[in-house]
Amino acid sequence: MSVTIYQIAERAGVSSSTVARILRGDANGASRRSIETAERIQKIAQEMGYRANARARAFSRGRTYGIGLLYTDDRWIFEGVNTHVVNSLVRALQGEGYHLVFTPIDSRGAWEDIVLGGQIDGGVVFQPMPTAVADAVRERNLPIVMLGDNSDPDLSQVVVDDFAGAYAATKHFLGLGHRRISCFIHESVKPHSSIQERLRGYRTAMEEAELPVREHVQTPEGEAVDALVLGDERPTAVLCYSDLEATLLAHSLWQYGLSVPGDVSLIGFNDLFSTRYMTPPLTVVGFDAAKIGEWGAKLVLQEIESKSESKSDSPAEATASDKAASVMTVKPKLVVRGSTSAARAASSAVAAPTAERPAASAKGATTRVDAQHPTSQRSEQADKRADRRRGGGADQADATTAGQAPQTGAVTPHSHDANSDANSDAIQS
């Protein structure tokens, strides 16, 4: 059975209000005698095994100092750039004396105790909430901020300008002379507002150039390879929804003896750490993911304060205030590395792979990488070709033993970072 402040007060010979005041640390300006009493009460509480009731303490203060992270799928939290968002969110909240409460939304209904039971002061989400949860949040008037998503205009948001990122990437391709430019979104990509925003940026740039769009949206891997690697109308450049699609295509092109960027230029999104060390390093649309978490914490804490200050207002006024959603926008930047180059004149004649261009399971699969410096000065470096001949007698230049792995270290191109907008300032409305 838990120990109460009344039991401690009886043993210490003081009032329960005195015990409550001492145990919450309120002894400022006390006399020496009061300090001695406080020390005695704390010692008695420790001996009796007293544990503070967090919910009761939160009720007395009017705050829990907890911020819920509501989610239906943990892959939104522990994959890709969102891990950086969550890390910065935790740091920002801790800096203000708050903590993050992971709140899974599932059939067990644990979220109801957290959201409706008063265990959090506000929350953040990466995705739209189920209707039942959204209704419960509105009924409780709980401040909620969306991170990286703009699907609910009634909620405050921190979003990336995905339209501007895709537009800048497509214009980069156009500036290098590409005309057959595709956009690829893998079938595994979960529904999200960024899909339509990136497609819109790509379409706008292509329409301005009076070129047909070549979209492969929610496309299975095999179908994408058939169209983007093996097709008779293979593109010379592909804008990929994320680094996942770019990695997939780079590997498939290598399997069939094609080069990046010599045969196909690639641009990905998100700028994960590993993309800097691909061969060649991947040109990407990047953004400061930490800003999303940092600004998300700022917005939700502002709304909590606003809600607290409006308690004295009439319900109608408080509701109107709560619906004045804020939007903070993180600006993307185009980081130009080695996976994009000028379109080659010969690329208009697209040849299907032959037996001389084996798949990855065949012996001696190699690829040649043409690197393009951002100044448009081309520099070519060739892999050593696999020696499929048994015995000598022929020219042995640029040959390796059959089955030997490609010498990737020899073909890493010079990379260069070029930011289309180095600033990550917020655009707030």
Automatic annotation (TrEMBL):
<keyword id="KW-0804">Transcription</keyword>
<feature type="compositionally biased region" description="Low complexity">
    <location>
        <begin position="395"/>
        <end position="412"/>
    </location>
</feature>
<dbReference type="InterPro" id="IPR000843">
    <property type="entry name" value="HTH_LacI"/>
</dbReference>
<feature type="region of interest" description="Disordered">
    <location>
        <begin position="306"/>
        <end position="325"/>
    </location>
</feature>
<dbReference type="Pfam" id="PF13377">
    <property type="entry name" value="Peripla_BP_3"/>
</dbReference>
<feature type="region of interest" description="Disordered">
    <location>
        <begin position="345"/>
        <end position="429"/>
    </location>
</feature>
<feature type="compositionally biased region" description="Low complexity">
    <location>
        <begin position="345"/>
        <end position="362"/>
    </location>
</feature>
<dbReference type="Pfam" id="PF00356">
    <property type="entry name" value="LacI"/>
</dbReference>
<dbReference type="InterPro" id="IPR010982">
    <property type="entry name" value="Lambda_DNA-bd_dom_sf"/>
</dbReference>
<dbReference type="InterPro" id="IPR028082">
    <property type="entry name" value="Peripla_BP_I"/>
</dbReference>
<keyword id="KW-0805">Transcription regulation</keyword>
<feature type="compositionally biased region" description="Basic and acidic residues">
    <location>
        <begin position="380"/>
        <end position="392"/>
    </location>
</feature>
<dbReference type="InterPro" id="IPR046335">
    <property type="entry name" value="LacI/GalR-like_sensor"/>
</dbReference>
<dbReference type="GO" id="GO:0003700">
    <property type="term" value="F:DNA-binding transcription factor activity"/>
</dbReference>
<feature type="compositionally biased region" description="Polar residues">
    <location>
        <begin position="420"/>
        <end position="429"/>
    </location>
</feature>
<feature type="domain" description="HTH lacI-type">
    <location>
        <begin position="3"/>
        <end position="61"/>
    </location>
</feature>
<protein>
    <submittedName>
        <fullName>HTH-type transcriptional regulator DegA</fullName>
    </submittedName>
</protein>
<dbReference type="GO" id="GO:0000976">
    <property type="term" value="F:transcription cis-regulatory region binding"/>
</dbReference>
<keyword id="KW-0238">DNA-binding</keyword>
